[in-house]
Amino acid sequence: MPRVRVVSRNFMEMVAALPAAKLDLLYDRHWTCQAVLRSLPPLGKQYVMRLLYVENAVPVKSLQEWAQPDALSKHQVAIDRLEQLRVILAERKKEVCYRMNPKFQKQLRQALSTGGGPPRDVVSGSIAARTPSLEDLDNYAMKQWESVLLQLVSCASDGPTGPQNSFITKVFQRAGLLSVPNEKESLSITDLGFQFLLMDTNSQLWQLVREYVTTAEDRGTDSGELIGFLLELGFHHVGEAYGVNSLPPALQKVLEELAALGLVQLQKGRSESWYIPTKLASNLSASLSDSSDWQSSEGFVVVETNFKVYAYTSSKLQTEILRCFARLEYQLPNLVVAALTKESVNTALASGISAEQIISFLRKHAHPHVSQRIPVVPETVSDQLRLWETDRNRVELAPAYFYDDFPTMDIYEAVVAHARDLGGLLYEDASARRLVVRADLHEDMRMFIRKQSSGTAAQRR
């Protein structure tokens, strides 16, 4: 069975990357067909609706006549997208023609004419009455997602602390957010991991889900079945309970893993189990460029011109993320006072975080009282962050050794010439008889200086 390895911006790019046979199997489900239709550009949607009840192949020239002359570029983009997703199939006879994929055509017709029914078995009314409110469900999703990020941020300093979810750890490692330790080392966050922490929630979620799907075959899960189920989740009603017992064992295992990410909440009764999708699940099939109606929290950060950062939060996660680039000075029950110092920012820059990422994080999480301020982050602060980053890019630090107190100018000049020949001379001051040489040449330089000093002493005798 082929293994899917793709780097995609959204779910539809991942769907398009599937082998043709596996993609056609996905089109046996009308939920996949509806998700694909929803993702298409406006012109692509129009072409699908025009071809939906056309049984014969349509010549390319006829399709081109559907678009205005000044819209041919958009026309071609739509056609290419439909071909990538195998919504239309090319037939090359006397002239190139396109025919709608029969499986896609059949399932989409059924969905549009009958509604398709509920995605899964909805549980009985007695169970539905026990489901959490939408507010409680949002809080659950937020709590689960924060626990995922806390597992990553706990590795930013002295290694992981507290209980670790092995499934989440493996996803982090496969995504390159955590280093794979040897026997003597503990897990540590990577440069990509630090950058990941400053992303918005949708981008973070998509990156983890993408890695989760692309490594499905390694875990013995069919990637096509997994993608189909995740796309179907996008049509589930948030807060409504769906039965688990009717799902195949592979998808029941998937639900446990999705619950760890906060996409669903699992509940168990005496004789049956059910899952409740959260708003995170409803956003899965959306493009990264789409806006989400789910936010983890409102803004909480105020940045002052004196480089002080006031974070009105009691969240451990937000506090730890702030610690990645700022020095914490005071911590109260609902307020954290920090400072952007050269040392704290340089530590963040050395970890792979850029100045623009720090500024963007501070803007996105600005407190409502300052979010309308222009600029949200004072220019003195943002400019200084960029200057500190420029200094790091301009100055390269390297270990070296400093030599002085040479007894004669002849010895000094010979040593300088030797260091220059080796390509390790970093600095020389002939008037003071001083020089700086790369650290890796220290042993060689020490032997040479000793030899020169011995030769001079022998000549004097």
Automatic annotation (TrEMBL):
It is found in: Nucleus. InterPro entries: Tfb2_C, TFIIH_p52/Tfb2. GO terms for cellular component: transcription factor TFIIH core complex; transcription factor TFIIH holo complex. Gene3D superfamilies: 3.30.70.2610. Coiled coil: none annotated. GO terms for biological process: nucleotide-excision repair. GO terms for molecular function: ATPase activator activity; double-stranded DNA binding. Residues 383-450 form the Transcription factor Tfb2 C-terminal domain. The keyword Acetylation does not apply. It comes from the Eukaryota. Keywords: DNA damage, DNA repair, Nucleus, Transcription, Transcription regulation. Component of the general transcription and DNA repair factor IIH (TFIIH) core complex which is involved in general and transcription-coupled nucleotide excision repair (NER) of damaged DNA. Belongs to the TFB2 family. This is RNA polymerase II transcription factor B subunit 2. It comes from Ceratodon purpureus.
